[in-house]
Amino acid sequence: MYNVEILSRGHVDNQLAGNYFEHVTLKSLGLHIQQDHPLGNTCYNPRPASTDNFVVIDINGVHMVSLDFCGCKSAQTNYKQLLHSRWFPATTTEPQTATTFAVLMSSPTFSRVKGIGI
Ligand SMILES: [Zn+2]
Which residue numbers delimit the CxC2-like cysteine cluster KDZ transposase-associated domain (predicted)? Predict the structure, then answer.
């Protein structure tokens, strides 16, 4: 859940360069997301996502990030780790893209469906 907060609160896609803003990615600013471990808690068996440009679609934009899945003994599958973080993976095998639940909940289709506990 921490990674969602990072994307929401730490949205710094534009960096002041002189008198104008230039577009930078969260990845270029050093953001590296570790799944299934809270901030400050080290994973001793990180497994990098199959791509170094994991795409996260959030309410405030589309972000390229570096992401490691947890490979600890009690780790869940990759897609379950994403779901636990409230990210909906595009695929269940080797996900490279995910949409935050916030985006899904902002969709009229999902917001009209009663009983979905997202
Ligand atoms: Zn771990």
Answer: 26-105
Interacting residues of 81 by C-beta distance below 8 A, sequence separation 6+: 35, 36, 69, 70, 75
Ligand 1 mean position, distance from CA 35 (Å): 8
Long-range CB contacts (< 8 A, 24+ apart) of 113-116? none
Rounded mean pLDDT of the chain?
83
Q: Per-domain residue ranges for the chain?
A: 2-107
Q: Is the four-CA dihedral 6, 4, 52, 60 of positive or negative sign?
A: negative
Residue 110, pLDDT above cutoff 70:
no
* Residue 86, Ramachandran bin (φ over 0: left; ψ between -120 and 50: alpha; else beta): left
Distance from Cα 34 to the centre of ligand 1, integer Å? 8
Q: How many A from CA of 7 to the centre of ligand 1?
A: 21
Ligand 1 geometric centre to CA of 23 (Å): 32
